[in-house]
Amino acid sequence: MRFQEKMLKKFSSVVLFKGLDEEQLRRIIDLGEICEKEVDQYIVLEKTLGNKLFVLIDGSVEIEVLMPVSRDPDSKTKESITRLNGGDVLGELALFGDHRRSASARVVKHASYITFSKDDLDSLFEERQDIGYRVMSNLSSILAARIMNTTTSLKNKMYQLIHPLFLGGKH
Question: In three state form, how does the secondary structure of 38-100 look?
Answer without folding.
Answer: CCCCEEECCCCECCEEEEEEEEEEEEEEEEECCCCCCCEEEEEEEEEECCCEECHHHHHCCCE
